[in-house]
């Protein structure tokens, strides 16, 4: 592929940026209009999938505390196991920063791929309803107030799952048992 074709393709799928959010911490915002039914996080096929490696609690406990806290915040356990992407933590998956809304403008069927539910306007924050996917939906949440988000059991974990929070209060996540 020519350099100019590659650049055009990369820029054609660039819709979002991270910014401070009024909902909670950091959020994902549209830098231009996004049509209904679009995946705003589409990447080039060679970067769309990544491998994962399982990290045990003992391995996390042996890390510097701030690094262990970051991993626990960004990657939610799937079936009681925590997975970290093999591409490392220096690649930002924007979907990790989606905030919760009871009236979201994104939806997902598998917890990994998001589509716009309607046209999203430039400057608007992208949101998702945490209650519509993940451990609670698949019967793995431990407590009514916990959000333990993970892809459906049949969906490979791709890393960068959503940090669960609601409003301005971060929720403590518990590993599914």
Can you give a write-up of this model?
The protein has about 180 residues and is an alpha+beta fold. About 15% of the residues lie in helices and about 20% in strands. The chain is built from 4 helices and 10 strands, in the order αββαβααβββββββ. It has helices spanning about 5-10, 45-50, 55-60, 65-75; strands spanning about 15-20, 25-30, 50-55, 80-85, 100, 105-110, 115, 125-130, 165, 170. The strands form 4 sheets. The protein has a 4-stranded mixed β-sheet, with no helix packed on it. Strands 3-4 form a two-stranded antiparallel ribbon. Strands 6-7 form a two-stranded antiparallel sheet. Strand 6 and strand 7 form a beta hairpin. The longest helix is centred in the N-terminal third of the chain and has 10 residues, at about 5-10. It is globular, with a radius of gyration of 16 Å.
- Helix % is 10-25%
Beta-strand percent range: 15-25%
- Overall mean confidence score, pLDDT: 73
Distance between the termini: 47 Å
Number of separate helices: 4
Shape: globular
Major beta-sheet overview: 4 strands, mixed
Number of strands: 10
Order of helices and strands: HEEHEHHEEEEEEE
């Amino acid at each position: 592929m020519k350099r100019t074709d590659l650049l055009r393709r990369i820029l054609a799928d660039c819709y979002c940026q991270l910014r401070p959010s009024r909902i909670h911490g950091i959020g994902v915002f549209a830098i231009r209009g996004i049509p209904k039914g679009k995946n705003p996080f589409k990447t080039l096929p060679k970067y769309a999938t990544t491998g994962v490696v399982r990290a045990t609690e003992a391995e996390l406990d042996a890390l510097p505390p701030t690094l262990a806290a970051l991993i626990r915040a960004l990657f939610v356990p799937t079936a009681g196991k925590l997975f970290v992407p093999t591409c490392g933590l220096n690649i930002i998956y924007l979907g990790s920063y989606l905030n919760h809304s009871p009236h979201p403008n994104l939806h997902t069927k598998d917890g990994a791929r998001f589509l716009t539910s309607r046209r999203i306007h430039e400057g608007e924050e992208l949101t998702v309803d945490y209650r519509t996917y993940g451990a609670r939906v698949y019967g793995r949440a431990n407590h009514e107030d916990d959000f333990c988000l993970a892809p459906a059991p049949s969906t490979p974990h791709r890393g960068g799952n959503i940090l669960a929070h609601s409003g301005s209060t971060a929720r403590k996540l518990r590993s599914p048992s």
